[in-house]
Design a protein that fits this description.
Layout (H helix, E strand, L loop, with lengths): L8 E2 L4 E3 H11 L7 E5 L3 E2 L8 E3 L5 E5 L12 H20 L18 H6 L6 H13 L1
Parallel strand pairs: 2-4, 3-6
Antiparallel strand pairs: 1-2, 5-6
Length: 142
């Protein structure tokens, strides 16, 4: 298990850089593991963005989701359920990237890029037809 993330900590931003975590995470996965997904409470960033909900290696092995920005209540009557749904959506989205799926323009697709938590809530947890085909092709390559 990857418990010490201090190597990825940025003292100026007080956040963790997700990209080096992905590289390290990969080394923790046994070779027979197809993908590895980490879920963390720490706030993640990549240099071009203020924060990220998660990051993945496109077509690679590892991905990570941060719950840090997912627990803002968006006037939900069931915050706990909403929080869990957001984590699941982000996990599927990042795993999709590891299966070589890129951001999708369709609003009815889990691979649609979300700029904020409201968009995460509006987003479906399903792949669009087009991305399903791409995923099936990727599965054949494995
Ligand atoms: Zn994405
Ligand atoms: Zn799509």
């Amino acid at each position: 298990m990857l418990t010490d993330l201090s190597f990825a900590y940025h003292t100026g931003r007080k956040q963790y850089h997700s990209t080096p975590i992905l590289v390290k995470l990969e080394t923790f996965a046994p070779p027979e593991f197809l993908k590895v997904l980490a879920i963390t409470r720490v706030d993640l960033f990549i240099p071009i963005l203020t924060y990220v909900f998660g990051e993945a290696q496109l077509g690679g092995k590892s991905c990570i989701v941060s719950t840090c920005r997912l627990n803002e209540d968006n006037w939900s009557v069931e915050p706990e359920r909403l929080f869990k749904a957001r984590i699941v959506k982000e996990a599927i989205h990042e795993l999709g990237h590891t299966f070589n799926l890129r951001h999708c323009k369709s609003n009815d697709c889990i691979m649609n890029y979300c700029r904020g938590i409201e968009e995460v809530d509006l987003r479906t947890d399903q792949l669009c037809r087009y991305c399903k085909v791409l995923l099936a092709d990727e599965e054949k390559r494995l």
